[in-house]
Design a protein that fits this description.
Elements (H helix, E strand, L loop, with lengths): L7 H12 L2 H13 L3 H29 L3 H9 L3 H36 L1 H4 L5 H9 L4 H18 L2 H28 L5 H8 L9 H15 L5 H6 L8 H29 L10 H12 L3 H35 L3 H20 L15 H28 L2 H7 L6 H25 L4
The chain binds phenylalanine.
């Protein structure tokens, strides 16, 4: 008998925990920074509502019907064996994401410890770039911190659904919500913070003409929600029939988006108040932000809090990715959860070695002119996740019979249900296909 969530709120918080992660803080801040702030935010919101939310509903409905793991759920939903392969592909994808995601999560833990011990503040000012580079260029250190956070995730997943995953999210997610709100209030009271708020919330309409904006916004919507990797299929597998899926999915999508906006309100006002560059790229959270913190009154106290937030948010997402694979191995192969969890942590560590060392020993190894980690990150958000979303849309929209698809997702045959199905059948696949073809350079 497969375990179920203890409470609806436990399920919602665990699912928000999966969605809220490095994507909302580290990635949202720099992608919004590079793509014009307010303009990016509007485009991103439209994609979340029209494509992201319908797909979250679709994933959850496949999962709940299967009431087991991803591979089983795809088998049941597809009513034929070949859809099982899609399930396995997603398990592989989840492990691939985890392998490099845990590397960046490891950086966050390293920075948390450095900020606590004061180590981080020593290389003041200009030298921050050197601190970051010095750390990621080290032969072993990145691997060590990555292993640490992977082991913590392993302990939690080995504990099971109610006692492991649900319990940690019940504690961490409200706490992280409070922390990010507190940080935003702090940033907004800085003199000169208004420019940061305007940057994030006031659109510069001319930027809508840039095609790269749409690619970036869709990729971010997928990554931030955590779509296309069967995380919602897996968490939906533990969901009881009494929880209405559309309402739960809307809460999760709203929570994830709100979290990103509040995190933006914590980061951009501080960046602008001190004249930093909002388009600093992936280095924004690890180089520009610590530099800014040091110049603020109380910044050395805010520092550890910020990096705790980053590490803990990453942890709750890592748990969900790990669970995708652990659930399949336990249910399909009949293995014990607490043993499987460790085997998979080991596999992810090995898979992650090239990413962890991609700025150090392997810095010379470049694909398409970029370090390995950057390549995997781009391949995942621009290709693997959208492809996963496309397959889910085809399965729910075209393979499953209309009335069953609606019933599985708790929709009646009203305009709301038809709108959802229209997005799943037409809007989502076409948008994703266009963006996929473009990212492959075909269009
Ligand atoms: N949504 C997570 C984040 O924002 C990342 C993630 C991607 C989690 C894909 C699960 C699946 O950091």
């Amino acid at each position: 008998m497969v375990e179920q969530w203890k409470s609806r709120s436990g399920f919602i918080l665990a699912t928000i925990g999966a969605a809220v992660g490095l994507g909302n803080i580290w990635r949202f801040a720099y992608v919004a920074g590079e793509n014009g702030g307010g303009v990016f935010l509007i485009t991103y919101l439209i994609f979340v509502i029209l494509i992201g939310l319908p797909l979250v509903i679709a994933e959850l409905s496949i999962g709940r019907r299967g009431a087991s793991d991803t591979v089983t759920a795809f088998e049941v939903a597809g009513d034929g064996t070949h859809w099982r392969v899609v399930g396995w592909i997603m398990v592989g994808g989840a492990l691939l994401i985890l392998s490099y995601y845990s590397v960046i999560a490891g950086w966050a833990v390293r920075y948390f410890v450095g900020a606590l011990s004061g180590d981080l503040w020593q290389d003041a000012g200009e030298k921050y770039g050197a601190y970051f580079e010095g750390f990621i260029a080290n032969d072993f250190e990145p691997l060590l911190w990555q292993a640490l956070i992977l082991i913590v995730s392993g302990v939690i997943v080995a504990g099971g659904i109610q006692k492991g995953i649900e319990r940690i999210n019940l504690v961490l997610m409200p706490l992280l919500g409070l922390i990010v709100l507190g940080l935003a209030v702090f940033s907004l009271t800085l003199p000169g913070s208004g420019a940061g708020v305007r940057f994030l919330l006031a659109p510069d309409w001319s930027a809508f003409g840039r095609p790269s904006l749409y690619l970036a916004a869709l990729g971010q919507a997928f990554f931030s929600l955590g779509l296309g990797m069967a995380v919602f299929v897996t968490y939906g597998g533990y969901l009881s029939a009494s929880t209405r899926i559309p309402g739960a999915a809307a809460t999760v999508a709203a929570g994830d988006t709100l979290f990103a906006i509040v995190a933006g309100l914590a980061i951009f006002p501080a960046v602008f108040a001190l004249g930093g560059d909002p388009a600093a790229g992936p280095r924004l959270a690890f180089v520009v932000f610590p530099q800014i913190l040091l110049q603020l009154p109380g910044g050395t106290i805010i520092g550890p809090v910020f990096f705790f937030l980053l590490s803990a948010a990453a942890l709750t997402s890592m748990i969900s990715l790990l669970e995708v694979a652990v659930a399949c191995a336990t249910h399909r192969m009949g293995l014990a959860r607490n043993q499987v969890a460790w085997v998979i942590v080991g596999i992810v560590l090995v898979l992650g070695v090239p990413s962890a060392l991609s700025y150090g020993v392997l810095a010379e190894v470049k694909l398409l002119g970029q370090p390995i980690l950057d390549n995997i990150d781009q391949a995942v958000s621009n290709f693997v996740l959208p492809l996963g979303g496309l397959l889910v849309a085809v399965l729910v929209g075209w393979r499953i019979e209309r009335s069953r698809a609606l019933a599985d997702a708790d929709f009646r045959d009203t305009w709301l249900g038809s709108t959802w199905l229209w997005s799943i059948r037409v809007l989502a696949p076409i948008t994703i296909a266009v963006i996929l073809l473009r990212s492959l350079g075909v269009m």
